[in-house]
UniProtKB/TrEMBL annotation:
Organism expressing this protein natively: Salinicola endophyticus
InterPro entries: CT_A_B, Cyclophilin-like_dom_sf, PxpC
Record-annotated Carboxyltransferase domain positions: 31-309
UniProt entry tagged with the keyword Protease: no
Keywords per UniProt: ATP-binding, Hydrolase, Nucleotide-binding
SMART domains attached to this UniProt entry: AHS2
Protein name (record): Biotin-dependent carboxyltransferase family protein
Amino acid sequence: MAQETAGGALVVTQAGPQALVQDQGRFGVRHLGVTQGGALDWVSLGWANWLLGNAPTAAGLEVAVGGLTLEAQSRLTLALAGADLGARLDDTPIAPYTHFVIEAGQQLVFERPRHGLRAYLALPGGIAATPVMGSLASVMREQLGGLDGQGRALAKGDRLVARHAECRTRRLDTPPDPVAAGAPLALVTGAQIAHFDGSSLFDAFNRAWQVDSRADRMGVRLTGPVLRCRLGGMISEGIPLGAVQVPPDGQPIVLLNDRQTVGGYPRLGALSPLACARLAQCQPGDSVRFSAVTPQRARRDYLAQLARWQ
């Protein structure tokens, strides 16, 4: 067991392009027009929490791209998972899927992506802040969550305070690959898939797609063969996590955690939660493929991942 000073904290000395406080998301509020938010790669956040003995739902830090520097105000045990952003403790490299001790005055630096796009940092017990609608998930567009309740990204001078003074560390013998390049993205078909022509359906599941530079926490655009749908106008309907919408240009958009709550474009279906986590780690230019799965298979894989954290 590792012990820390109560109220141990990290101070942001360089903010980087985007670092957000995230947990598993905000649920039961979509009827109010509020989206779920939460960690894009919820699997990596779960592993970071597991390494410290936290609940999988504990709030951690999502670091996109890098460029972030944190300085310890007191001794803390931290855990890192997800993308390799060239993290180092002063001059010592820190590998993903490990826990480590940072002493007062030391700096934790995230440089730039080497493998994957988003790293996740866990503190003992999670990050201390006041939940909004039951969650600390930062949604910048809706100005909800985070350290101040307004959903903003971390800024220089912000303090990340650990909820607990103690943690029970664990080791992961075989670290997962958050990207799993080459493995297809599981897609549960449905919605308006029958309205796409045959050649489009063949291309959707047999051709490669490239991750476009137009990608953020709301969604990821993919480029590749043009998909054609015979469906005309649609009444807007609820949009689930991972929904694969196809706008008139025929290039799919996979909607992620900060998506709108309703939409009116036809859909091939939705990626599984595990596939969404992997897509969130893909960089612009990466190649991905879809693989059709049943809802039962997607649910079974999801529950199997949750069981690994028991």
